[in-house]
Amino acid sequence: MNSVNPLVPQKVTLLEIAAETPEIKTLRVAGEGGAPFDFRPGQCAMLSLPPVGEALFSITSSPDCRDSLEFSIKEAGSVTRALHALSPGQELGLRGPYGNGFPVETLKGKDLLFIGGGIGLAPLRSLINYCLAHRAGYGHIDIVYGARSPADLIRRAEINKRWPAAPDTAVYLTVDAEFPEWSGHVGFVPSYVSELAFTPENRVAVTCGPPIMIKFVLKALEELKFTPDQVITTLEMRMKCGVGKCGRCNLGSKYVCKDGPVFTLAELKTLPAEY
Amino acid sequence: MIKSINKAGLDRLWERLAAAGPLYLPVKEGPAVLFRPWAEGAAAALDVTQATVSPKEIFFPRDETYLKFRREGEKLALAESGTPAGPAIAFGLRSCDLRAVELLDLVFRGQEPADALYGRRRENTMLVALACGQPDPSCFCGAFGINPADAPGADVMAWWDGDVLVMEARTARGEALFAAAGELLQESAAGSKPLAPATAEFGLPLEDLPERLKSRFYDPAWDRLYRGCLACGGCTYFCPTCHCFDVQDYGSQERGERFRCWDSCMFGRFTLMAGGHNPRPTQKERVRNRFLHKLQYFPENFGRFACVGCGRCLRSCPVNLDIVQAIRALGGETVEQR
Ligand code: SF4
Ligand code: SF4
Ligand code: FES
Description:
A: alpha/beta, Rossmann fold, 2 domains, seven-stranded mixed beta sheet, six-stranded antiparallel beta sheet, 6 helices, B: four-stranded antiparallel beta sheet, binds FE2/S2 (inorganic) cluster
């Protein structure tokens, strides 16, 4: 159903729902012809489950995967709770894609440093898999990813096997505290980034995670001499329309749904810190 | 083309025009004057300076269902729904109302994707502007270069000449109104012109204001300005350029509908996120957002102030926290005191 009213969702079917962590599930959906639309890594879409409502999520699958779309969703409110309770076969509403997405063109030829925390890996994953699928276009890839505990790390198959095995790619995992089953690095993501001492030459850092993590990651990167235009992050706001009209997701004159969610630190510095 | 009609003939004109579709007119409803579809016996309050709630609700109703759903087990049926927006006439808009429509157009029609709900109504509605004879003491449209006697964008411009309503068709659509009214309208005596009343500008320091406000986001003036605000949302509800809305579902697991309704950036939950974080945690940030949206953000995006000086927020705020106060508090030196 294609509508001239951009608020009207189209119908998709839930193909698969998998628990990533106790709080996060990944939902895979498709329309009749597979992924219902083309998109760029970092873009979002609005999932709807009437009568509970709609909510905006970043698309975690890569645009190269055309048979379905994936969303990793953390339970936080009524819509996410209802989404978590679904079983495959359920039909849902979907509209999008929304937002600017990551600047895949300007990232070409650069070394990439991905820094994620918790559910924040979800938007990064779309870009990581995109870059790996177009490997020749991008330089060395480093992925620093952490969570509170080993059980809170998502996309385990990728972070443990697929990505470390990918060409010219390194993965650094960390958890906030000691756990008996964990033999890897222990410590917060920002300090791990400082410890690993990434150099800023020809490198762009892309970070996403809880606000407190982002705050300290930005500080760490600054200390490592990354300039504000070498740092990219994504923002989250409450959203209703997704198309810059309902008025609730603005940072100054920018609407996160339309002009974001991806901003360089240089851009963020020109906007009110209302996020 | 200029035609006219005597006041005494207006009821017949309303009846004729309303036959083809809704004819929105300012009518008294309790203590308020609202734009409502004319119905037999309704008295048009054309003498009232401004409708209490701005006529934006003709194009952007307070609430509007646009989707119906049915669920049966796994199956979900989604169907677009809503009131068909056929031809309509909005009669009696003031110059400030017209300017506000122009501004809402920028948001709803001027950027992709266009808003179909607003766009359909807007396209199918003829706009008849009525020159303002007596601005309210709270009006300051002059500050935004609005002429109460001339409303660009109107299909028909109307004005009073004593007891005669003179109408000038300015578009083909306006001429169609004349055709529909037929013999009810008389050829008009040449030379009648709307009298432009004196308008107020309140000496507001608007020059370069968007630019100057850029450096005042963290200004201590905000700490004083917001204090009285009750978060009632009245200002945004009455404002002709406010366009925030909410989207909600209504119904049971089996069937229901989705609607949008006016919302307000003055409400605490407006930006409250599902996880509990609120980027505008206190009324200060909300008040600041409302005024900066009108005076800085909208100008940055569209090159226009999102205020038309209608004075509705001056008249409706229970604690006199209005945009004039904000401009004075943040705009620098004032030229004169109101
Ligand atoms: S801000 Fe106040 S004066 Fe300006 S258009 Fe809105 S209600 Fe009217
Ligand atoms: S500024 Fe006045 S009208 Fe607006 S929400 Fe506050 S108290 Fe209500
Ligand atoms: S979600 Fe409506 S303006 Fe951004």
